[in-house]
């Protein structure tokens, strides 16, 4: 049984010299992150499609079972809203091809204005994706969460394409007012999403936003420990991404989440061992 965990990025200034060796050349940073976590959100691909050679470097730094959940470019999802996107999708799919099996899912993050009336557009887009790629959709229009008919419509569309619905759980973050600069910034930028915990496929993906205080983050993910353990017992293979506003302790928190699930599910495959920050010596 495998539970993959990860963060929103593979490099962060606050990790340098503390969790990851420093200095590290760019072509080594992902390899060191992959000693902590075995999955990562591919947020950078939202802003620009990377060069194929760059992606080949990502593959070289990770094992074949490492998971990238790669976000589609904003020109596809936000600017053109999934219409007339043949060329940008061709370029994108060609760029990420070196990832091979590491490309766990194509992450279709849709804007909050993409609502129930747009679901037929989503259905047409998902039907055109290559069968070799799994897809996972994140929606932010409130009707998908509060209107049962809209929920069923979206679930049916995703089921037809064997696509997952990615929940972004921000309920713990918004439960109390912000107490740090990073939290105050996130308070104005992160979406206040209704809670969703259902999985549609055998590979559910969860994004969880905690607080800068690690204890508060751990308190807020309790429900996900039980849900994730249940998925594993059902034979599913989930991926859980742990966020905090400053992300200073995100890798250690992701590993802690994995550890806490493993106490509920004996036999869970272990995470890799982190590469030492300082060279190991005998004396």
TrEMBL record:
SUPFAM superfamilies tied to this protein:
TM1631-like
Coiled-coil region(s): none
Instruction: Write one Pfam family the protein is assigned to.
Output: DUF72
Q: Which residues cross the membrane?
A: none
Quote the InterPro entries the UniProt record gives: DUF72, UPF0759_sf
Q: What name goes with this protein?
A: DUF72 domain-containing protein
